[in-house]
Amino acid sequence: MYSDKVMDHFRNPRNVGEIDNADGIGEVGNPVCGDIMKIFLKIDNNIITDAKFKTFGCGAAIASSSMATELVRGKTLEEAWEVSNKAVAEALEGLPPIKMHCSVLAEEGIHKAINDYRVKKGFEPWTEKNLHSHEQEDMTCQH
Ligand code: FES
Question: What is the mean pLDDT of residues 47-71?
């Protein structure tokens, strides 16, 4: 059911943990399955210099958080904002359709952490308006 890459990131997740004095923190949850993901970002000069996560969730959610934190490291906030759940899933060499919604948590967690940072700095939070819609995603969780 899962690609080798998903299994690798599930078994050996990268960037697990918290960042002390994180500049941005985003916590998101899927109300259907109850899975929770928390993303921590260190931001220096508009660049994400470190990203970590804590996820209480299914294997796909753990692999997605691992890959998402890898993808946003070294990126500007603007570039990181554009990292879609589909990009996360593609980097994982695909997720089964019923597991695509798990990667949405990773995208939302990154967005929330970026906006947490922006608001703390006195900037307007960015909106999802011109971003990929998740409406077609089936949010029903099946572990
Ligand atoms: Fe709930 Fe994956 S996030 S099943």
Answer: 97
Q: Which residue has the tokens 């990292």?
A: 83
Q: Is 109 near ligand 1, meaning CB less than 6 Å away? A: no
pLDDT of the residue at 130? 43
Where residue 76 sits, what CATH number does that domain have?
Answer: 3.90.1010.10
Write the pLDDT tens digit of every residue in 40-56: 999 999 999 999 999 99
Structural domain boundaries, residue 15: 4-120
Of the residues 41, 92, 102, 105, which is catalytic? 102
Bridge partners for 48 per DSSP? 43
33 annotated active-site: yes
DSSP string, 67-136: HHHHHHTT-BHHHHHT--HHHHHHHTT---GGGHHHHHHHHHHHHHHHHHHHHHTTPPPP-STTS---TT
Residue 90 lies in a domain: yes
User: Could you tell me if residue 131 is inside a domain?
Assistant: no
Nearest C-alpha to atom 4 of ligand 1 is from which residue? 141
Cα–ligand 1 centroid distance for 44 (angstroms)? 32
